[in-house]
Write a structure and sequence with these properties.
Helix content is 62%, strand content 7%. The protein is α+β, with helices and mostly antiparallel strands. This is PRD domain-containing protein.
């Protein structure tokens, strides 16, 4: 028997504080991992392969604090859906998802019990930007609703999708929400300026939103784009409304991201806007 993980304290049937071979504390999470365990017992290596181990001290302390306020059944269900997320993406997840998703779902359940419904203004953009994460989030909400016999609103799918995207990309949920909010603002500007009632399922809408997402990521990382002076001149003359709107969008992005936007971005935005105005009007 490998004795590298020794039980220090059982927090509940699914969460155990252990010490490793270096006497460092870890939180080990897994279905039934704490059942019947006593202080000093050992966790088998084959069990650890099926578990999550929180190594970061801050994450550990936040998670311990959360557990004191949460029903064990809720903890078990959330851990089950995190396993489901990892399986669906066949990818390691940032361990912060245990704290972030547990905290979010617990708060969502509390709001539900109080009869409060927080609307998600970025639901459509989230579904467009992160389609696989959104699909998995639908599965997660379905499992939670069925297991806990509750009915979390549709908006929670979008919030969970952002947590999933954060966990698989190691980006903060705050940054992801900020970018989603920016895209929402930009799309409202487009709709108003072009006097469009946009079909959010249309291919041109999807292309524009995804382009904006990639543009924001490029701008945030400071990527340089090759100038398109000749094409820019043609587009400015042929499609002045879309070209001017593209520059308005660029100025909003510059202010929101506090980063310079390459002039070439106006070319690509103008082409997307022209397609949208021509085929979705």
């Amino acid at each position: 028997m490998n004795k590298s993980l020794q039980v220090k304290k059982v927090l509940n049937n699914n969460v155990v504080i252990v010490t490793d071979a270096s006497s460092l504390e870890r939180i080990v999470i897994g279905k039934g991992i704490g059942f019947g365990k006593k202080q000093g017992a050992h966790i088998l290596p084959e069990q650890v392969d099926k578990l999550f181990v929180l190594k970061d001290e801050n994450e550990q302390e936040q998670y311990k604090t959360l557990l004191t306020h949460i029903d064990e059944k809720v903890v078990e269900v959330i851990n089950d859906v995190i396993v489901h997320i990892r399986t669906r993406f066949d990818n390691d997840l940032n361990e912060h998802i245990h704290v972030a998703l547990t905290d979010h779902i617990t708060f969502a359940i509390k709001r539900l019990e109080q009869g409060l419904d927080i609307k998600n203004p970025f639901l459509t953009e989230t579904q467009t930007l992160y389609p696989k994460e959104y699909t998995v989030a639908e599965e997660v909400i379905e499992v939670i609703n069925k297991s806990l016999r509750i009915h979390l609103p549709e908006g929670e799918i979008g919030f969970v999708a952002l947590h999933i995207h954060s966990a698989i990309t190691n980006k903060s949920v705050t940054a992801i929400k900020k970018h989603s909010q920016l895209i929402n603002t930009l799309m409202q500007m487009v709709q108003h300026a072009l006097d469009l009632k946009i079909d959010t399922k249309s291919i041109n809408y999807l292309r524009l939103v995804r382009h904006l997402r990639h543009a924001i990521e490029r701008i945030s990382m400071g990527d340089i784009m090759e100038e398109q002076e000749k094409l820019a001149k043609v587009l400015k003359e042929e499609y002045p409304i879309c070209y001017n709107l593209a520059w308005k969008l660029i100025k909003v992005m510059q202010n929101a991201l506090n980063k310079p936007v390459p002039h070439a971005e106006a070319v690509y935005l103008t082409m997307h806007l022209q397609r949208l105005s021509r085929y979705d009007n």
